[in-house]
């Protein structure tokens, strides 16, 4: 009995050893699979699901969805957060360099100052018919407002850098290049409307430096800075005066207030002579003391404001700045440049000094030309300026050389009109302010009004 029990014990022990080996192999096999799984995770950056047996397909599919679910949800949230994040509106640089239409991507440009008409025209404000007329003109209004916004931003920068000692030609070229950039100059569709006038002291208007001019801005100078912008031929004509010496403050104030009075008095069916009378009354209420001598401020009687048409800076109607002018009335839809000139001199200007401003006559027909050089120059003028004013610096910029004889030939033939500087008596001082207004069907819009004046 004892011998048989030992055999049984040995047999059981042998079976136990076999079981241990199988268990060890099973454990090793499991560890190997886990190691492979962790390697896949490291390699791909995400967990991979081992292939399941055919019978367990539904479970494997459910596991796969559970793993992919959070990733898909995160992607959706990311997309939503991107959609919610709005682009910040562009801010103009200093100095200005971003084109105006990029600052207003919706294509809606700032409206000018709105003034109501006087009592007999107040009904226009609520007239549905007049409002509809304005809706039809909205693209045109938007074009001229774009030109006005360029004018405001350019003059704001120029006013910030003006100082005695500046070369006048550098000042003009800085201003003009900025206009070209902000308005996105494009042939005759958008650009500069006329040369930059920077007339000094007794020179009232139409002076800009020709190439090579060495004139420098001085502390005691009174400078009229008159420049224009246009979009699709819709012109903004606007000017202001700069004086560093405070003794000229009252002279500047006289023309500023006179211009504001002219703007206020203007309106549909208003007679031009009435606007002139109101301007003169305000202008000549001012006195100015210069170097110890008191001067009665005078309106320059042979300078005027004017109506403006497409590609036509002077469209036919003149707005006087003294009493006794025309009885002609202002009309609905018209643009006017209301400008006034205050003088310590005679209050009367004449042509003098070297000419820089020129403009092709608006109504000129075909006139035969003999000189081939004149024909070539006229082609350049037609292509780049048409009936907008230009100056000799603009021809230089286009690469034209030795053109003075050809230009004189065009002037003699009546195709181009020269506009020499307009001067009061030497030693006097003239100041100017100017705004462009639009007589809309429902109200008056001061297109060029800004925070500065």
3D architecture notes:
The protein is of the alpha+beta class. Helix content is 40%, strand content 20%. The protein is built from 11 helices and 18 strands. The chain has helices spanning 2-44, 57-84, 100-103, 128-136, 138-161, 168-182, 249-265, 272-283, 372-384, 392-397, 404-412, and strands spanning 113-115, 190-200, 203-205, 222-231, 234-243, 287-290, 293-296, 298-299, 305-308, 318-319, 335-343, 350-351, 357-360, 390-391, 416-419, 422-423, 430-439, 444-446. The strands form 5 sheets. Strands 1, 8, 9, 10, 11, 17 and 18 form a 7-stranded antiparallel beta sheet that branches. The protein has a 3-stranded antiparallel beta sheet with strand order 2-4-5. A 3-stranded antiparallel beta sheet has the order 3-16-12, with no helix packed on it. Helix 9 packs across helix 11. The longest helix has 43 residues, at 2-44. The chain is globular and about 60 Å long. The N and C termini lie far apart (129 Å). Residues 1-5, 18-22 and 30-67 have low confidence and may be disordered.
Q: How many beta-strand segments?
A: 18
SSE order in H/E notation? HHHEHHHEEEEHHEEEEEEEEHEHHEEEE
Globular, elongated, flat, extended or rod-shaped: what is the shape? Answer: globular
> How large is the radius of gyration?
40 Å
Low-confidence stretches: 1-5, 18-22, 30-67
Number of helices: 11
Mean pLDDT across all residues, rounded?
87
Derived from helix and strand composition plus strand pairing, the structural class reads alpha+beta
As a percent range, the share of helical residues equals 25-40%
Largest sheet: 7 strands, antiparallel
The separation of the N and C termini measures 129 Å
Binding site for a divalent metal cation 1: 226, 237, 434
Binding site for a divalent metal cation 2: 237, 306, 339, 434
GO molecular function, one term: initiator methionyl aminopeptidase activity
Catalytic activity: Release of N-terminal amino acids, preferentially methionine, from peptides and arylamides
